[in-house]
């Protein structure tokens, strides 16, 4: 299989665990058979590989998510990064161009495009594989997967098929309706539009060349900011005459809110939390180093992180976005390609951060203009390079880095480091990256 996973999201629907750089697909709330927690993107990748171990998986995403993807999947997947946001049609075209021109995948091969964040079982990706085979051998130019609806939802668009067969031509599409209209659509055999498409690479490149003048992936990347913002549905799906839909009746949930996420979480609680015997239908996720005790809670979600604390009725949690939009805080936790970064304390003139560096990883060789840094090695072994000078480091060592000094650190083992940033202006933008000459 060739699969493009669309990984977007503003990071506000699962606040306070999600943020601008940590969307819901990166929060580890699911358990594998060995008891270890995994995130949605890790779960999806594992499921795809269980269906086809040779699958080419490309994640189309924005710059803010690249570090988390690299942290959680290492180099197992290819990442196609949008230089700026341009909606799903440009993002899919860029990813298909990347597959064709950078990875060298033949234009006659097919690709399936899927969102990265539904909660599904392995049968879903078996269906995606079948959809891709239909695109190879079928008579239509474009194939969709339609989910058999379990209730008249107002959140999804609907596909009206011509027949009740497993694979059918498409009669028409309906926008997100109210409940009454959704009930009528379902009576007519309508399916939820799950945003899953399959087509030949040549098909989409031909479409794209008709709309954008580009020669290859790199040329398209340079022109990306000039592309019109438009969804794949509007640009392609709703204009295509040769189109069919395949029914899917297996497990499928859009876990876009705490209410729906709590239905599929592996445990009632995660982190340091306790519920008394009177609690009913209550979930707690605690990323803080202090305990949470719940008593008499009913139908509630409690989530705590360095970015904030949420205490909400489960049903109401789906309506919190406008309230979260009014909350202005700096991000206190982020996943980097080399590990994790957690803010412990922030005040005028200083910030204290705990860094977890993974074995074999390195920070980029960089410098800060407006702040000094002091690293205290808590555990693990590795080496630092400061202005070209290399030094082995061990627990208890303290490294002082003056503003303007180029520096990096490499972990020979997993490492824990306390970093104190000192300066009148402390900002993420105060960073210049350099090439390290060896």
Shape, principal axes of CA atoms? globular
Query: How helical, in percent, are the residues?
Result: 10-25%
Low-pLDDT stretches are: none
| Straight-line distance between termini | 40 Å
Q: What composes the largest sheet?
A: 6 strands, antiparallel
Radius of gyration: 24 Å
What would the average pLDDT be, to the nearest integer?
A: 92
Strand tally is 30
Question: How are strands sequenced across the largest beta sheet?
Answer: 20-21-22-29-24-27
* Number of helical elements: 10
Structural class: alpha+beta
Strand content: 25-35%
What does this structure look like?
The structure is a single chain. The protein is an alpha+beta fold and 438 residues long. Helix content is 21%, strand content 35%. It is built from 10 helices and 30 strands. The protein has a 6-stranded antiparallel sheet. A hairpin with a 2-residue loop joins strand 25 and strand 26. Helix 1 packs across helix 4 and helix 3 crosses helix 6. The longest helix is centred in the first third of the chain and has 16 residues. The two termini are 40 Å apart.
Question: Gist?
Answer:
The protein has helices spanning 40-51, 66-73, 88-102, 122-137, 179-187, 201-209, 217-222, 232-235, 258-264, 321-325; strands at 2-7, 30-31, 37-38, 56-62, 78-82, 110-115, 118-120, 142-147, 158-161, 167-174, 191-200, 243-248, 252-254, 269-270, 273-275, 283-286, 292-294, 300-305, 308-313, 333-336, 339-347, 350-357, 366-367, 372-379, 382-386, 389-393, 398-401, 407-411, 415-422, 432-433.
